[in-house]
Design a protein that fits this description.
The complex is a heterodimer. Chain A has a single domain, classed as Immunoglobulins (Immunoglobulin-like). Helices cover 0% and strands 50% of the residues of chain A. In chain A, strands 2, 4, 5, 6, 9, 10 and 11 form a seven-stranded mixed sheet that branches. In chain A, strands 1-3-8-7 form a four-stranded antiparallel sheet, with no helix packed on it. The model of chain A has no long low-confidence stretch (mean pLDDT 93). By secondary structure, chain B is an all-beta fold. In chain B, 0% of the residues lie in helices and 57% in strands. In chain B, a hairpin with a 4-residue loop joins strand 7 and strand 8. The chains are: A mainly beta, B mainly beta.
Chain lengths: 114, 110
C-alpha cells in the first residue's frame, strides 16, 4: 500500500511568485495536515483538512492557503513568496479525526525561494 | 499558547550507549503525546502515550508519560548508528491538534 506521497520533491521559485504543493494521502485516510519545517526548526502547523473542509489553521499569513479535493488529496498554495518561506513542507494524513489516530507523513517538498 | 520543549537539543554518543531524551509540555486540554523519528525527511511514528506511568516498548526503544509533571521521556538502549536521527515529540490536545517540539538531534558514532 502506498504511503503519503508529495509532489514535487523540490521546487525553486523567486520572490513574489506563487508555489503549489500537492499531497496524496494514504488510501482510506480522510484527514490531511500540512506542516512547515524551516532549517533547524521543528514542525510548524499550517493547515488541517478533513472531508473537504478546513478544520484548523496555524499562525501563518493568509497567503498560505489550501484545499482538499473529493478524493481527499490536497494542495497547499503559497502566494507572494518571501525568502523566509524556504523550508521543507510536510504533509501528513490520518484515518479520520479520531483523537487516537496517528499521523503518517510524506517525504515533503523542499521549497527554495531565491 | 501551547509549548513543547525538548532536551537536549543535540547529543553525540557511541554505539552501545543508552540515551534518554526529554520532552516537557504545556498543552491546554491534553489528550495524548506522540513520538516521531525523523531520519531524512518523513517523520516516522514511534509511540503514542495517553496514560501516565505506563511504559510503551518497542525493541530497544521505550517511552513513558507523566501527566502530573507534564513530561515524557524516550529511552534508547544499546544505541546503533541507525538510531541517528532527529527525535520529535508532539502532544495532542482535545481539538486533535499536535504541537511539535524542536526535536533532539541524536548522533550515534561507531
Amino acid at each position: 500500500e502506498a504511503g503519503v506521497t508529495q509532489s514535487p520533491t523540490h521546487l525553486i521559485k523567486t520572490r513574489g511568485q506563487q508555489a503549489t504543493l500537492r499531497c496524496s494521502p494514504i488510501s482510506g485516510h480522510t484527514s490531511v495536515y500540512w506542516y512547515q519545517q524551516a532549517l533547524g526548526l521543528g514542525l510548524q502547523f499550517l493547515l488541517w483538512y478533513d472531508e473537504g473542509e478546513e478544520r484548523n489553521r496555524g499562525n501563518f499569513p493568509p497567503r498560505f492557503s489550501g484545499r482538499q479535493f473529493p478524493n481527499y488529496s490536497s494542495e497547499l498554495n503559497v502566494n507572494a513568496l518571501e525568502l523566509e518561506d524556504s523550508a521543507l513542507y510536510l504533509c501528513a494524513s490520518s484515518l479520520d479525526t479520531g483523537l487516537d489516530e496517528k499521523l503518517f507523513f510524506g517525504s515533503g517538498t523542499q521549497l527554495s525561494v531565491l | 499558547e501551547d509549548k513543547v520543549v525538548q532536551s537536549p537539543l543535540s547529543l553525540v554518543v557511541h554505539e552501545g550507549d543508552t540515551v534518554t531524551l526529554n520532552c516537557s509540555y504545556e498543552v491546554t486540554n491534553f489528550r495524548s503525546l506522540l513520538w516521531y523519528k525523523q531520519e531524512k525527511k518523513a517523520p516516522t511514528f514511534l509511540f503514542m502515550l495517553t496514560s501516565s506511568g505506563i511504559e510503551k516498548k518497542s525493541g530497544r526503544l521505550s517511552s513513558i508519560l507523566d501527566k502530573k509533571e507534564l513530561f515524557s521521556i524516550l529511552n534508547i538502549t544499546a544505541t546503533q548508528t541507525g538510531d541517528s536521527a532527529i527525535y520529535l515529540c508532539a502532544p495532542r490536545d482535545a481539538g486533535n491538534m499536535l504541537t511539535f517540539g524542536g526535536g533532539t538531534r541524536l548522533m550515534v558514532k561507531p
